[in-house]
């Protein structure tokens, strides 16, 4: 018996399970809610098999079928995402992404998550320059309306959540300042949505500049932001190369969380 050949055998899998998972992923990644025949055609399945898979996933709560026949991800699928968030460890699974960003840009890089009404620093890697931004720490949050990471998240939140975060972020400001800053911020957040990254041009700390890009969970929900900080004297205008590096890191985090959108 050839043991080496035996060790390289493909593990035994269930074809039915593979098809069901592929069907579920096809619905999740479709640009619009698809119909059974569209998904079956895409996967090379006959329509009868497609309907059997739909019935199974629908019964389990992983898919729903609207009256017009289109398919959508069911509420039960949220259990899988919640399990992913519960089981992965930022320091182990996402810290390497931030290390790579810091190495690429030579600037201090960090990852923040959207938590409650705040944007919280979760992991930090300092830059390699002798003069660099230091002092960021895990757990820091607040001033989301000033920080690039905060703006990157605010730009993609639904209106009620954005209002709640801004209320917390600006709670210590006089009411007339809150109104003025909110109006000014609206235009900046629209620009952030259009270009895919946010800037802190000395808003939070006069001597520091920051670039941040949001990352997303499945279903277009913004989950946090990847950011870099650097001394104002070293900040390039325009910061296109830095923005490209930050957006690439954010896409990598999004992909890890199961969100795939090459346009972001």
In the CATH hierarchy, the architecture of the largest domain is: 2-Layer Sandwich
Task: Give the overall shape.
Answer: elongated
Regions with pLDDT < 50 over 5+ consecutive residues? 1-7
Distance between the termini: 52 Å
What does this structure look like?
The protein is an alpha+beta fold. It folds into two domains: 3-79, Arc Repressor Mutant, subunit A (Orthogonal Bundle), CATH 1.10.10.10; 88-257, GAF domain (Beta-Lactamase, 2-Layer Sandwich). The protein is 47% helix and 18% strand. The protein has eleven helices and seven strands. The protein has a five-stranded antiparallel beta sheet with strand order 4-3-7-6-5, with helices on both faces. It has a two-stranded antiparallel sheet with strand order 1-2. Helix 2 (15-29) crosses helix 3, helix 3 crosses helix 4 and helix 7 runs antiparallel to helix 11 (240-257). The radius of gyration is 22 Å and the shape is elongated. Residues 1-7 have low confidence and may be disordered.
């Amino acid at each position: 018996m050839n043991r080496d050949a035996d060790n390289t055998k493909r593990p035994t899998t269930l074809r039915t399970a593979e098809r069901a998972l592929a069907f579920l992923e096809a619905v999740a990644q479709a640009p619009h809610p698809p119909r059974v025949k569209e998904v079956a055609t895409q996967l090379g399945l006959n329509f009868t098999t497609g309907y059997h898979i739909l019935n199974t996933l629908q019964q389990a709560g992983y898919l729903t079928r609207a009256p017009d026949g289109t398919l959508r991800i069911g509420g039960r699928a949220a259990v899988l995402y919640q399990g992913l968030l519960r089981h992965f460890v930022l320091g182990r699974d996402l810290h390497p992404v931030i290390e790579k960003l810091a190495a690429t840009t030579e600037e201090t890089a960090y990852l923040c998550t959207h938590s409650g009404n705040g944007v919280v620093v979760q992991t930090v890697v300092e830059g390699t320059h002798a003069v660099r931004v230091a002092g960021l720490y895990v757990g820091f949050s607040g001033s989301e309306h000033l920080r690039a990471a905060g703006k990157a998240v605010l730009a993609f939140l639904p209106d009620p959540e954005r209002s709640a975060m801004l209320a917390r972020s600006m709670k210590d400001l006089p009411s007339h300042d809150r109104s003025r800053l909110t109006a000014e911020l609206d235009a900046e957040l629209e620009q952030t949505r259009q270009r895919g990254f946010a800037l802190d041009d000395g808003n939070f700390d006069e001597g520091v500049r920051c670039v941040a890009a949001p990352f997303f969970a499945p279903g277009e929900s913004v989950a946090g932001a990847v950011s870099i900080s650097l001394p104002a004297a070293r900040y390039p205008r325009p910061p296109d190369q830095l923005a490209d590096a930050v957006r690439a890191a954010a896409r990598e985090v999004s992909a890890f969380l199961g969100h795939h959108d090459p346009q972001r």
